[in-house]
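We were asked to recover a plausible sequence for a given structure. The inputs and outputs are reproduced exactly as logged, with field labels preserved.

PROBLEM: sequence recovery
POSITIONS: 577
GIVEN STRUCTURE:
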């Protein structure tokens, strides 16, 4: 599956069928995109900025030259494992240097990266691993039991090679030694970073150390080759993989560079967003390499870790979600740490409150803007300008090289009048190639002439800014992660004592939204929050587990029997907390 070319390649009768003019235009011109794979950016950074620090992981540093050498050796290890061009390789890792190494090594041999949340349950991993057809899984040691469990219970995964990745291996030598100290703090840190690995599961760092580097003559992937399968719930909540090509990922990184105007070889990017998520993968992992930035890698978002890194290596660019910005300002003020080195921050995944933007800009003296996108757009499609015209609360203007339209919610071929609300369509070089092995769902989401249906209702104001009106999709966004109500509901319906359930999102403070389960109980049964959370925790990601339950006598339904989640949400909001 490949992307079919630039957005200007339209059918001859396209202009006759729908207006050609976009609803809003980009203020930035996109230079010609290079026809190259994503790996070319790392090779260029190593050649031009070989001595520059590429990665800082809790104080352990790696130069671009050393990173490129490590990727070549890791690529050799993958070939020794039997990975060939087109093979899918699963990566289930937190943020760490080996995540970068594995990512670029898979691409260098012509393989396809499949990113997974390392905290997923065995059931969630089993579905995604089997669906992608992954042949090798590079897995955090703490996630190895879940992957092995998934393999044991899924016939399609019988031949999956599982390789364990030890995060502690990326630490400085003195920090690795400190993990062995017989003190409580060392034991807690070690338990958080690593888990036991069965003898039959090889360790990644040993395979890489023993491997011969991949020869420079090994064929490079092409720009049209698939680079990444990124799982998303789309509009249905059923996990499916968005197919992103090298051209898609290169385009979005270059669009971001045109937007920020960062100078190559000068920036320090803070990698606090998870790399397994499309937002963190592009804005941190791939973007930093394209501009030869130093990437400060944090295994998870912890204000104390961020401030320790800020004292050691001050950052200049922070991709984040709004609660992170608020928590960092509060922590920095309490600790007396300056954030003035940050000149740019981009916020996504949820609306950026004006108060949060103001706090960040007052604390840093820099700018923070809101961006908008989805996995299917690699992921950024819109953004606010990094200047005085930025508008907190607005999705922004189209990224360079991106077109948008606002169409009727009933008929996507009909554009709405200027200023009216309608569904947002996006077209550009970052728009995905479709869903992996799902032609019907691809056809429903990706129109024949390259327009992507986002499922979000927007309007465009007189200044051309796109404003979010509502979500067609009923997903819940909590802490920057998407929760699909149907998945939580399907699991809760199997819980003893639950007759029916509707899952909704309500305002949740720093989380953005909080997951609430409205349940109808079977006669004679009682269910409390602790039981619901324990039941859900068996199969759902932690962020999808309800934080509150509400017991209702029945659920409101439409004439055709569909549960009216919006009515349920109103009922929940009307109840005392």
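RECOVERED SEQUENCE:
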């Amino acid at each position: 599956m490949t992307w079919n070319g630039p957005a200007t390649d339209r059918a001859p009768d396209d202009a006759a069928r729908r207006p050609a003019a976009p609803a809003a235009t980009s203020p930035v011109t996109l230079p010609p995109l290079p026809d190259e794979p994503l790996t070319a950016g790392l090779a260029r950074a190593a050649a031009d900025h070989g001595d520059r620090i590429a990665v800082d992981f809790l104080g352990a540093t790696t130069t671009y030259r050393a990173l490129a050498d490590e990727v070549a050796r890791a690529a050799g290890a993958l070939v020794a494992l039997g990975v060939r061009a087109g093979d899918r390789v699963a990566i289930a890792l937190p943020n760490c240097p080996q995540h970068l190494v594995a990512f670029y090594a898979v691409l260098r041999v012509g393989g396809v990266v499949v990113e997974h949340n390392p905290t997923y349950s065995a059931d969630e991993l089993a579905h995604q691993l089997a669906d992608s057809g992954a042949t090798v899984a590079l897995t955090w040691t703490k996630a190895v039991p879940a992957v092995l469990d998934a393999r044991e219970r899924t016939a399609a995964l019988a031949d999956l090679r599982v390789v364990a990745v030890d995060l502690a291996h990326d630490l400085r030598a003195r920090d690795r030694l400190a993990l062995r100290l017989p003190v409580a703090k060392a034991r807690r840190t070690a338990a958080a970073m690593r888990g036991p690995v069965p003898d039959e599961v090889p360790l990644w760092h040993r395979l890489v150390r023993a491997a011969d580097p991949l020869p420079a003559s090994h064929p490079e992937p092409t720009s049209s080759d698939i680079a990444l399968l990124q799982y998303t719930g789309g509009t249905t909540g059923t996990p499916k993989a968005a197919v992103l090509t090298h051209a898609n990922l290169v385009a979005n990184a270059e669009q971001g560079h045109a937007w920020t105007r960062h100078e190559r070889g000068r920036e320090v990017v803070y990698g606090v967003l998870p790399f397994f998520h499309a937002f963190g993968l592009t804005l941190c992992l791939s973007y930093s390499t394209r501009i030869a930035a130093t990437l400060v890698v944090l295994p998870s978002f912890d204000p104390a870790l961020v401030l320790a890194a800020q004292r050691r290596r001050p950052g200049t660019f922070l991709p984040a979600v709004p609660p992170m910005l608020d928590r960092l300002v509060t922590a920095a003020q309490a600790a007396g740490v300056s954030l003035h080195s940050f000149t740019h921050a981009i916020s996504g995944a949820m609306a950026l409150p004006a108060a949060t933007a103001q706090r960040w800009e007052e604390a840093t003296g820099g700018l923070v803007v809101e961006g908008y996108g989805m996995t299917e757009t690699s992921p950024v499609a819109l953004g606010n300008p990094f200047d005085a015209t930025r508008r907190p609360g607005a999705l922004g203007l189209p990224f360079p090289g991106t077109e948008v339209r606002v169409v009727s919610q009933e008929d996507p071929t009909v554009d709405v009048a200027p200023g009216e609300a309608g569904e947002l369509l996006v077209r550009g070089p970052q728009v995905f190639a479709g869903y992996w092995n799902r032609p019907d769902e691809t056809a429903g989401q990706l129109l024949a002439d390259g327009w992507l249906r986002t499922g979000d209702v927007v309007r465009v104001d007189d200044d051309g800014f796109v404003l979010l009106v509502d979500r067609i999709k009923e997903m819940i966004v909590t802490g920057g992660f998407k929760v699909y109500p149907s998945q939580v509901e399907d699991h809760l319906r199997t819980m003893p004592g639950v007759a029916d359930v509707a899952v909704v999102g309500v305002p949740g403070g720093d989380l953005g939204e909080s997951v609430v389960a409205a349940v109808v109980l079977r006669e004679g049964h009682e269910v409390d929050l602790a039981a619901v959370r324990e039941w859900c925790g068996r199969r759902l990601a932690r962020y999808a587990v309800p934080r509150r339950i509400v017991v209702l006598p029945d659920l409101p339904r439409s004439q055709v029997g569909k549960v009216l989640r919006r009515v349920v949400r109103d009922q929940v909001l009307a109840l005392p907390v």
